[in-house]
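During data preparation, we tokenized the protein backbone, and the record follows.
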Amino acid sequence: MGFFKVKRARSGLNFQKIILVFLIVLCCFSVYEFMKIIHNAAKGPKRVELYYKGARRFSEESKAIYLKRIAGFWTYDIEIMVAGKPIFKSDHLEIKDNGIIWQVVIWKVRMPSDSNEIFYHIRTVYISPYGVVKGDTLSDAYILSQVFIGDGDTCFGGYNYSELWQTCRIGEELIVSKRNYRPYRGDIAAFFPPGAVRLVENSEKQLYYDTTVAGGKETKLNSVYHIRNVDPNSGKITLLPIRDSINNLGDFFRIKLANEYSAFKIRIHNQEEAVDLLGKYYQPFFIDEQWRLFPRAMPKTVQVSFIVRADGTIDSVQLLSPSGLNRMFSGNLIRELQSWRFPSTDQPIQVTYTFPMP
């Protein structure tokens, strides 16, 4: 935000200057409220009780020291074979000592149609360390802006919400929510894909609402905000949608997977085919990715049972083992399973499967 001087006119401030001052005050108030939300992200009593109970709280000086200790360029890259199909995951973090983080996640996946697709998740995050419990540092990671790219589609996801990150620095490695990152030793200019960070960076404060004017009246076209993207070569302007329901790459991938089932009329006929899909997609991209962020202790495995309806939706979800699971864990896992979609079936299929938990 630039600075300027308002000169006193003989007749006083004119109307335009009053409006300008009002907008500046409003902008400053918005920035203040935003920073207050970040500052208070971990102060709610419910959040402290659920996630931070027993943590030794950081002082402001301790926060600054810890951020300097984890600042740098960090990488996580892994390629695995699942049911004979290769899966590549890449996660690059640039952590600044002021708490700002840039992150680019890349998945290379063999889809059910046997095509190879690449999915990107690019976001900027503000991390606020809270304290230490059992050797791990607990932090609120506040999502400032994020974009998802894949399968010919680009959209911006939810923002102004926080995740809980558990971090621990051990030797050269930085462990973030059960993921081991190593220091990046290559050319810094090649750390992120060209233009990836700029796409999110340029999106800040560029919210647009679709409207049209007819007969002197403004008419709403749809209730979706957009980010204006300008092609640096052609100058073409594209309005990319903001989908608040997409908070992580798993949410984005879930939509693409369902679209692939529909577009290629993929069907399953028995439990074995359903289990094959669980191993190829739902375990590595939903369970492994999302549940490593769960803030409480988890069992090593969970056996589940559910029915795949004829339309591919899931019904009658049950957690069979182990017994005595935490209520928050059980409820969240059941809701996760209920959100999945499978290919259509000729008749309902009963599925029993044991998930290794991250």
